[in-house]
Design goal:
The protein is an all-alpha fold. It has a single domain, classed as Formate dehydrogenase/DMSO reductase domain (Formate dehydrogenase/DMSO reductase fold, Up-down Bundle), CATH 1.20.1630. It is 70% helix and 0% strand. It contains 14 helices and no strands. This is Hdr menaquinol oxidoreductase integral membrane subunit.
């Protein structure tokens, strides 16, 4: 019963913490709430009229929702780049950032689930994926594997930080023998969630654009570039607007991870381009459509060349120590890299896989305002959840939230 009292006290104190703050904090939360409500309104239209209100069709059946899902799986997996050095390699420089990274993973995974629900048309069809009730089709279906690995990873990223913060809330140190097995498991599971997502695309034989042996490794490389880049930006915001001070050497160490991952990602991109264009076959038509257009259809050209330009410039700048160690330059590079990989793993990966169709038909896809509204609402939901988690965690880590024994 004593632990339940502590838990109740933690919930009450957390609610008190997240409902108080500066004017900037309330403006931020108010802005997110408005965007969430706009997203809910757009989603209500989709529920009422069906997926016909989106830009998706019989030819291009995955669009903005699945693009964001694929990208966010990588953001969630990136937390492992902080978990491993902190919990396993005992690098104290990462200790300040690891809880923030895991909170970001939780928010990203919740957004992943929300995007899948949006893409399915609505929550009413989720029962089809419940084992024993629907047709889960495990282990034959890669979608079933994806559902399992994502939900297990979500549980891991909720349970470990919760245990640590729960102990710190009581003024106690977390027991290593309790959280370390889960931390080790999360390292392997983070790799699994991205590889399984890549295998989901690779296993579709009718989509030659995705039948690439480098797809899984490149998923990981891009994830370990974009995810830590976002963590750096979040840590910079936290450092500026809260009392939770993150040392520069921590940010610079994460920047080194971003740099190496971005370099590997760029090398793999060059390898893929060589494979597609040096000895092209009819299976290269999707790549031709993406990078040069096909039969006068060029809707994705501005997107992909913007992504490549930002990717190359950011990676080149990060390669030089003097530029990377300048925090203002680092933040700019992180923004560029994040946007570039979002485009590349979104529109640049999902949409071209459907174009041209099996019979050579080219039907271009662009998202509608409804899709954009729902997408912005889900991103705002993720930011809202992360802000709540981060504010509570920071309060506990700073010692402002402590269990008051009677």
């Amino acid at each position: 019963m004593g632990q339940f009292k502590v838990l109740k006290s933690l919930v009450v104190d957390s609610l008190d913490t997240i409902t108080k703050g500066s004017l900037k904090y309330h403006l931020w939360m108010g802005f997110l709430t408005i965007v969430i409500l706009i997203g809910m309104y757009c989603y209500s239209i989709q529920l009422d009229e069906g997926l016909s209100v989106t830009g998706m069709n019989d030819r291009v059946s995955w669009g903005l929702y699945i693009s964001n899902f694929t990208f966010l799986v990588g953001v969630a997996a990136a937390a492992v780049m902080l978990v491993m050095p902190t919990y396993i390699l005992k690098d104290i420089d990462f200790k300040q950032a690891v809880l923030i990274g895991e909170g970001l993973a939780v928010a990203a995974l919740i957004m992943c689930i929300a995007f899948v629900i949006a893409d399915m048309g609505g929550p009413a069809v989720l029962w089809h994926m419940i084992p024993g009730i629907g047709v889960f089709n495990f282990p034959n279906s890669m979608l079933a594997w994806d559902v399992i690995v994502l939900n297990v990873y979500l549980f891991i990223n909720i349970s470990i930080p919760f245990y640590i913060l729960f102990r710190h809330y009581q003024g106690k140190e977390a027991k290593k023998n309790v959280y370390l097995p889960g931390a080790i498991l999360s390292v392997f599971w983070a790799v699994a969630i991205h590889l399984v997502t890549a295998f989901l695309y690779q296993g579709l034989q009718a989509r030659p654009f995705w039948n690439n042996a480098l797809l899984g490794p490149r998923f990981l490389a891009s994830a370990f570039a974009a995810g830590p880049a976002l963590i750096i930006l979040v840590l910079a915001i936290i450092k500026r607007f809260t009392e939770f001070k993150v040392e520069e050497k921590t940010i610079k160490k994460i920047a080194m991870i971003v740099t190496v991952a971005a370099q590997i990602n760029l090398i793999m991109l060059i390898s893929e381009l060589f494979k597609e264009f040096y000895a092209p076959t009819h299976h290269s038509e999707s790549a031709y459509y993406l990078f040069f257009g096909l039969h006068g259809k060029t809707a994705l050209l501005p997107w992909i060349w913007t992504a490549i330009t930002l990717n190359v410039i950011a990676t080149a700048m990060l390669t030089f120590n003097k530029l990377r160690n300048n925090l203002n330059v680092l933040y700019l590079c992180c923004i560029m890299l994040f946007v570039a990989i979002w485009i590349e793993k979104g529109f640049g990966l999902i949409v071209p896989g459907f174009i041209p169709g099996p019979y050579g038909k080219i039907v271009e896809y662009l998202p509608t305002g409804i899709e954009v509204g729902v997408t912005l609402g889900i991103w705002a939901l993720g930011a809202f959840i992360f802000t709540i988690l981060a504010k509570t965690a920071i309060g506990i880590e700073l010692g402002k939230l402590r269990y008051k024994r009677k």
